[in-house]
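Retro notes (design track)

What went well: tokenization of the new backbones is finally stable.
What didn't: we kept losing track of which sequence belonged to which structure.
Fix going forward: every design gets posted as structure first, then sequence, in one message. First example under the new rule, 194 residues:
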């Protein structure tokens, strides 16, 4: 296999996204490694009191090479739906019993008209990302959907999920980027709040 280049330097998020996508594709292509990573994350969640005691958790349905999420028993699961239009927002819906559709870009989400869940009823948010850093910053796809969601004043705890190989010392950030409370990988659980 061709080695993946070192993380870029500088603040060009497009370069960082390209690096992270290439790295993540290689990790996902290693099927035994990807399976082990998903199992390890599920085990960490099952042992984590914040997961076990949450009433509702917003989770994601993996897109492409995102780390597969296999939520263990615990909270009631909620998933996002992209709200069409210029506001680039996410609506929230119960996963149990929801009919799902696949968007043209491969995202699985509840169909239009699925009853919504109010954001204030969610305790924990598990968020995907291309890369994360040791200050709790997340590099997303550039649409700002999760940053807008995290910008709401809500009582939830935010948790990034990633392979350890996509955790870097520092990512470029902008004022609208939101810091996460926790970062969960197959090998670690980091807290960024006092």
């Amino acid at each position: 296999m061709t080695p993946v280049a070192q993380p870029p330097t500088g603040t060009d998020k497009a370069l960082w996204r390209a690096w992270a996508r290439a790295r993540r594709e290689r990790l996902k292509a290693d099927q035994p490694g990807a399976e082990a990573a998903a199992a390890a994350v599920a085990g960490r969640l099952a042992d984590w009191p914040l997961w076990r005691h949450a009433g509702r958790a917003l989770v994601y349905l993996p897109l492409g090479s995102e780390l597969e999420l296999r939520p263990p028993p615990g909270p009631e699961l909620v998933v996002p739906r992209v709200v069409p239009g210029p506001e680039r927002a996410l609506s929230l819906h119960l996963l149990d019993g929801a009919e799902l559709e696949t968007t043209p870009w491969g995202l699985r989400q509840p169909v239009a008209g699925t009853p919504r869940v109010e954001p204030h009823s969610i305790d924990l948010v598990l968020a995907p990302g291309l890369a994360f850093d040791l200050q709790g910053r997340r590099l997303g796809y550039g649409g700002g959907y999760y940053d807008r969601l995290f910008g709401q004043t809500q009582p939830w705890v935010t948790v990034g999920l990633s392979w350890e190989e996509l955790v870097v010392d520092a990512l470029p950030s902008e004022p609208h980027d939101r810091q996460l409370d926790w970062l969960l990988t197959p090998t670690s659980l980091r807290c960024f709040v006092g």
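Added context from the reviewer: The mean pLDDT is 91.
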